[in-house]
């Protein structure tokens, strides 16, 4: 008995150590390290659990197991089971909206983001609307995906303990728009709370090339 639980703990630690990234909150649709490379939701094509998530101010936490990684977070709203990338930036009436969290670079460890779905002004996003949050992650070994299926609830707040209490949650401006503004106010979220203000220029360049590769991945998927 003891031996068995020891084995389970050991295999859990082994898989956590190999992971590219994990989604701490909200609850992931599913995590399979090997299938994480499969669009759109890392190998999980069907909605199973849907959890409540704030329509207003909220946090999202991931853990990254690469030295540096680039992250983009998008949301599809009012669609039971989104199956194309465009459903994560376009309403049913054809209006496009920005990502929930723009491209940003993170160090290894936990990363937390302040988000507010209501601030995206998506017409269909009201109390009780279904949504799917999509984490797109690149730690240098491919573009990886995880989804979280939620119901947006007005006035709901992230439960205490869902986010590690000793980390600072970052405010990441929306991704640079196609009309390039040189002063994107992206900043890397850090576990310690100290700002990782490395080289903004190289971050911008790598963000742009990642935008390109993400879009390539997206269009490859759509073809
Ligand atoms: C996912 O949904 C599809 C279409 O409804 C179904 O054919 C398939 O069996 C489902 N897969 C799982 C794992 O439930
Ligand atoms: C659904 O959520 C419940 C409660 O969080 C959890 O116990 C269960 O394992 C989840 N099921 C799946 C398929 O993720
Ligand atoms: C929306 O997403 C699609 C698919 O990823 C992409 O081709 C398109 O450029 C995006 N539109 C905007 C305005 O960002
Ligand atoms: C949402 O609407 C508010 C108020 O009109 C505006 O300040 C904000 O820029 C809008 N956000 C987006 C993403 O369009
Ligand atoms: C949102 O909907 C839930 C039930 O789904 C309800 O309990 C709650 O009062 C609603 N909140 C607001 C602000 O209307
Ligand atoms: C935060 O707390 C967890 C345990 O709750 C600990 O493992 C981790 O090292 C702490 N992180 C920092 C940056 O203090
Ligand atoms: Cu990896």
Kindly describe this structure.
The relative contact order is 0.20. Helix content is 18%, strand content 30%. Strands 1, 2, 3, 4, 5, 6 and 7 form a seven-stranded mixed sheet that branches. With 223 residues, the protein is of the alpha/beta class. It starts with a helix and ends with a helix. It has a single domain (22-176, 189-195, 207-219), classed as Coagulation Factor XIII, Chain A, domain 1 (Distorted Sandwich). The chain has two helices and seven strands.
Provide a quick synopsis of the model.
By secondary structure, the protein is α/β, with parallel strands linked by helices. The protein has two helices and seven strands. It has a single domain, classed as Coagulation Factor XIII, Chain A, domain 1, CATH 2.70.50.
Produce the secondary structure layout.
Blueprint lengths: L1 H17 L2 E5 L25 E4 L2 E21 L23 E16 L13 E9 L4 E11 L15 E2 L29 H23 L1
Parallel strand pairs: 2-6, 4-7
Antiparallel strand pairs: 1-3, 3-4, 3-5, 5-6
Radius of gyration: 17 Å
Helix content: 10-25%
Q: How would you characterize the largest beta sheet?
A: 7 strands, mixed
The backbone outline, from C-alpha atoms, is globular
Broad CATH class = Mainly Beta
Count of DSSP-assigned helices: 2
Ranges where pLDDT stays below 50 over 5 or more residues in a row are 1-17, 175-188, 190-223
Give helix and strand order, one letter per element, not per position. HEEEEEEEH
Strand content: 25-35%
CATH topology: Coagulation Factor XIII, Chain A, domain 1
Structural class: alpha/beta
Main location: membrane
InterPro entries: BIM1-like, BIM1-like_dom
Organism: Sistotremastrum suecicum HHB10207 ss-3
Keywords: Cell membrane, Glycoprotein, GPI-anchor, Lipoprotein, Membrane, Signal
């Amino acid at each position: 008995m003891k031996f068995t639980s020891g084995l389970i703990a050991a295999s859990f630690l082994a898989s956590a150590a190999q992971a590219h990234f994990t989604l701490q909150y909200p609850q992931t649709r599913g995590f399979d390290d090997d299938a994480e490379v499969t669009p759109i939701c890392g190998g999980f094509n069907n909605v199973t659990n849907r959890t409540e998530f704030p329509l207003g101010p909220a946090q999202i936490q991931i853990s990254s197991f690469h030295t540096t990684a680039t992250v983009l977070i998008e949301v599809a709203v009012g669609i039971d089971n989104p199956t194309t990338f465009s459903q994560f930036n376009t309403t049913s009436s054809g209006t496009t909206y920005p990502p929930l969290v723009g491209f940003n670079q993170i160090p290894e460890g936990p990363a937390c983001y302040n988000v507010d779905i209501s601030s995206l002004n998506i017409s269909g996003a009201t109390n009780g609307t279904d949504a799917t949050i999509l984490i797109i992650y690149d730690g240098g070994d491919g573009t990886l995906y995880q989804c979280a299926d939620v119901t947006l609830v007005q006035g709901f707040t992230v439960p205490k303990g869902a986010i590690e209490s000793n980390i600072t949650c970052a405010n990441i401006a929306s991704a640079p728009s196609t009309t390039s503004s040189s002063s994107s106010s992206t900043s890397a979220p850090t576990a310690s709370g100290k700002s990782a203000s490395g080289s903004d220029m190289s971050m911008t360049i790598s963000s742009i090339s990642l935008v390109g590769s993400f879009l390539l991945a997206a269009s490859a998927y759509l073809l």
